[in-house]
Amino acid sequence: MNIVLAGGGTAGHIEPALNLADQLKTIDSNLNITVLGTARGLEVDLVPARGYKLELIPAVPLPRKFSGDLVTLPTRLRSAIKQTRDLLHELEANVVVGFGGYVSIPAYLAARGEVPIVVHEANARAGLANRVGARFAEAVAETVPGSLPRAQLIGIPLRKAIETLDRAAVRSKARAHFGINGKAICILVFGGSQGSVKLNSVIETCLKENVFGDIVILHSVGLKNDFPDAESESYRPLNYIDRMDLAYAAADFVIGRAGAMTVAELTAVGLPACFVPLPIGNGEQSLNAAPVVEAGGAIMISDLEFTADFVRDQILPVVSSATKLSEMSNASASLGHKDSAADLAKLVLSVAGKAKS
Fold first, then answer.
1. Which of 197, 174, 194 lies closest to 184 in space, CA to CA?
2. Angle, alpha carbons 270-221-234 (nearest 5°)
3. CA–CA dist 143, 260 (Å, integer)
4. What total of structural domains would you count in the chain?
5. Quick check: 68 pLDDT over 70?
6. Given pLDDT bands bounded at 50, 70 and 90, which one contains residue 63?
7. Contacts of range 21-30, beta carbons closer than 8 Å, 24 or more positions apart
8. What are the C-alpha distances in Å from 66 to residues 11, 70, 217?
9. Are 230 and 199 in the same domain?
10. Left, alpha or beta for 135 (phi > 0: left; psi -120 to 50: alpha)?
11. What is the CATH number of the domain that holds 304?
12. Helical axes 284-295 vs 260-269, angle rounded to 10°
């Protein structure tokens, strides 16, 4: 069986695709899995590193305003669809699974009427590619209820290390890994692999003003960013955390953005959080976090209003209360999906199996 995954550009599109691929291989190691991507996306590095075949197709970004790119769009799109359709024939694809983004538009249109399509939407507000693909897809999966018509609520495929994480069981090991005192309260701060200048700036101010006191801050500042302060017993800065499972186990609370993957992982492991949505795009990060906030598993503040004073007045009272942390943890976990990868894999194999028969 030949399965083609279309999800390139950002880690938010690629990571769920690769987690699904891992789950599919666990079910049947003989499956042939190919990932479609473009030369301009992170998939160029991430897909081969995970051991999967990557095929490049032309990127066809959709211009948001009138320009020369809009005039040439039909020609470029037709060319990309033809190249992608030829590739699907060559691969003898039994199903195309799309995760949105630039790669998915040509993949959906190339597969239409020839190869069954499964669409997965990670965000609360679906992007254009998935809104198009969902119209003629065989099956649609979503993470937040109401994002697409006909969608099954499945959640985001997560890494096994996150799906199976028992925070309490590995807490001591996790804290030893990062050099954190076993009895201290720990706040994990991260803004994605690139970090967040705004989050880093607020943390720097908090450190200068000694807002945190004895609370330990485990801080992923980003690959290209400098540490706001020198490492100490209560401040553990890293440019990148490659063991997020251990970071989650070591932490009592999280301050971070509200990307779909971040929200999915924190609810899966039951971690209370303060979400500071990235103030760009169509507002999907705020929508991603809203159900968790409504359930009592997190608080949310706008990027503009997130300050050292907010940390002092709103976050510290929460993390200083074991009862409040426990209540928020339970509320967060109530929205988590630990079996999303398996559920999506079953759906994909069902669609592919019908087509093959």
1. 174
2. 75
3. 8
4. 2
5. no
6. low
7. 21/50, 21/52, 22/50, 22/159, 22/160, 22/341, 23/157, 23/341, 23/342, 23/344, 23/345, 24/345, 24/348, 24/349, 27/345, 27/349, 28/1, 28/349, 30/1
8. 28, 6, 46
9. yes
10. alpha
11. 3.40.50.2000
12. 20
Residue 244's CB is within 10 A of a number of other CB atoms, namely 18
Instruction: Name which of 247, 225, 228 is nearest 180 in CA terms.
Output: 247
277 and 184 part of one domain: yes
Q: Do 123 and 142 meet the contact criterion of CB atoms below 8 Å apart?
A: no
User: For residue range 217-243, what is the model confidence (pLDDT) as tens digits?
Assistant: 999 999 888 898 889 999 999 999 989
Q: Residue type at 33?
A: I
What single-letter amino acid sits at 231?
E
Q: What span, in angstroms and rounded, lies between the C-alpha atoms of 354 and 357?
A: 5
Distance (Å, rounded) from C-alpha 21 to C-alpha 34? 9
Whether 9 and 100 map to the same domain: the answer is: yes
Q: What angle do CA 159, 165, 166 make, to 5 degrees?
A: 175
Q: Is 235:210 a contact under the CB 8 Å cutoff? A: no
What confidence tens digit (pLDDT) does each residue in 314-340 have?
999 999 999 999 999 999 999 999 999
Q: How many CB atoms lie within 10 A of CB 67?
A: 10
CA dist., res. 197 & res. 230, Å (int): 17
The range of the structural domain enclosing residue 44 comes to: 2-158+338-356
Half-sphere exposure (Cβ direction) of 238: Cα atoms closer than 13 Å: 20
Write out the H or E segment, with its range, that includes residue 172: helix 167-178
Q: Which residues pair with 188 in a beta bridge?
A: 218, 254
Q: Which two tokens stand for residue 137?
A: 């897809």
Torsion of CA 201, 207, 211, 215, to 10 degrees: 110
